[in-house]
Every structure is written in structure tokens, then in C-alpha cells.
Design goal:
two-stranded antiparallel ribbon; 38% helix
Length: 342
Amino acid sequence: MFEVQCELPAPEEIRAAQPLPAALAAIKAERDELTKQVIGGRSNKLLVIVGPCSAHEPAPVLEYVERLGKLNERVKDRLVLVPRIYTNKPRTRGVGYKGMFSQPDPENEVNILKGIRTIRALHLRAIECSGLSAADEMLYPENYAYVEDLITYNAVGARSSENQMHRLVASGIDLPVGIKNPMSGSIPVLLNSIYAAQSAQIFKYHNAQVRTTGNPYAHAVLRGRVDNYGNDIPNYHYETVMQVLEGYRKVEGGLKNPAVIIDVNHSNSAKKYKEQIRIVKEVMQNRSYSEDFRGILKGFMIESFLVEGCQKHDEVFGKSITDPCLGWEDTERLIYDIAEKV
């Protein structure tokens, strides 16, 4: 049984009430083009999508993003830094804190209208204070329209990559969409998802029949897999990346812009957040070994925040309340290390 608790304004109304100013729109357009150049193979820079597991509170996120904007100025000749401002949080068992979109205050009840307004304000302020537009996870495809003018990079999570609606909506986004391998780790399923997202589609979206032209910037994200016994199995190694490249080449009908992003947390690190540093270094070593590997590797996803680790409740400013993250000092050193080896 469904009980209507609150009628929500249409996305167009929300965007009109909290518009993206022209000056910030120009910044975002430039950032969009930089990310597309990397995924499309027109730039030799690497993309680094970095930030907290979930954005649970605006103030520490803004401080983090402002620091990242200053760091970006020092590495922008080699890297494209995109802050993670993830406002939707998937839950393995379907219950618990679901992110700022649903709960702008993680200790209080769900308030989606307030959440929408909060995340728009957060994204606007983040662009203004850092000069960087952000990445978010497209956990609920129908929600994308509320923030479509603010996001530079979209991620489709492991639990969502086989979902038809995620694939269809991704096909209508003219920006990089990173599709994670499913929890099983299946590379054929991952490539099928990319194929669907790169293809023209017709479907129902927001009370209309819509047609998309396909998204040539949909690409693979390797995040590790979980076996039948619940064990984390990494898939960032040389052999898996080369299997993905071979899969790209073999897909009947072809795929555009072969690209892999390595998510160095989740099942690749078994959420041992310090392992992210070692994994990045191993992947960069593999990149120096093989031209094919160098060609398909487009960057990393890294979970980091102001303070390392995680906490159950929001007591320490800038510390994750979901998955554990690298602290700022380790993050800064790691980004400099990546830039040095590009």
C-alpha cells in the first residue's frame, strides 16, 4: 500500500527556484568538456573522482571541495579532479541512512523536498567556492532531472548496473556516465550495460515518451566483486583490465570510447581505506608497462574526506558517517603522486 506524504514540485520548478547562474554554468560547461575529452581519448590527462563516501553535511563537504579546487590548480596540467558529492546512499539491505537527497539531516526523518533544495544549494555553493563541478551517483534515475544542470559526472552503482531504467536514462545524458561492474563481477553484463547506454532508446520518463540518441561517454568502472560467500574479490589487476579491453573490442556492433575507471575502494580494497593508496600505485605501475593498458585506463575513484576513517554519528567534523575514507593529508599526497606519474 502506498501513502502519499508530500507532493513534490516538478524538476523544472525546482531548477527555476534555485537556478544555475550564468557564470557558474560557464564553469560547469568547461568542466564537462574536460571530462568528456578524457573519456573520449582526446586528452592524456587522468580523471580523479575523489571525495567522501556520502555527503551528509554541507559545511565539511564545502571545506573539502574548496581544498580540492586549490589542489586542482596545481595538478590541472595532468589531472582532472572531480569532487564526489554523493547525495544518494545505496543500502545493501534496503534500510538505513539513504543520503542527503532523502535525509538532509541524517539524524532526522526523511524529507525529500528539503533534501532536493539542500543538495541544489550545496552543488551551487561547491562550484562557486572551488571552480569544480561534481560527480554524484544516479541511484534513482527519476531524480536526475532535479540536478541535471549541476552534475559533471554520473555513476551507476554495482546494484543498479543491470537495471533497465538506469541504462535507459544514461543513454540520454550527454556527459560521462561510469557504470560499475555488477556485484557478481560479470564483465559481459557490464559491457551489455554500456552498450545499452550508448544506444538510442525510446521509453517513458517523467510522464512523457522520450527518445535518446545514446551516450558515447558511458564507460566501465571496476569496483571489485563479491563471491557467493560474501568475500570481496578485487578486479583492478592488469589481467582484468585487459579482459575488459578485449571485451570492448569484441562487442558486436561496437562500443565507442573504450574506457575504464578503477574504483580503488569497495570490494577492491575490502573497504580497508588505506589500501586505496597501494592500489593506485599498482595500477599506475601497470599503466607504465603496457600501452594498451595506458590507453584504456582513464582514472580513479577514491573515497576521502577531511578526517580519515568513519564514525557512526556526525560528531567529528569532516569524518564519514558511512564507509571509511582516506584523510586529507593522504589524499593530497596520493593526488600529487598520480600527477607525477601521468
